[in-house]
Write a structure and sequence with these properties.
By secondary structure, the chain is of the alpha+beta class. It contains 5 helices and 3 strands, in the order E-E-H-H-E-H-H-H. It has a 3-stranded antiparallel β-sheet. Strand 1 and strand 2 form a beta hairpin.
Amino acid sequence: MYLILCRGNSIYTGIALDVAARYAQHLAGTGARYTRANPPLRLLASFACPNQSVAGRLEAAIKRLSAAEKRTLVGMTGVAVRRRLLA
């Protein structure tokens, strides 16, 4: 699970096994359509998840948050984020 700050102060949320490699794809313009239109400025946070199912549920929960609420997750651990959003 990862959050990227994009142009326009928007936040992109995604899932990847290798966050660094996926972020490099976003930077190169070969990532998601959204990050091609709104280039990434920096990686805000990444959260480890025990499996793909949990990552998918966490991604869905994060995507329902406002950008301001997403910013409050920066600096938290994956466990803390899961407790907060999936409890």
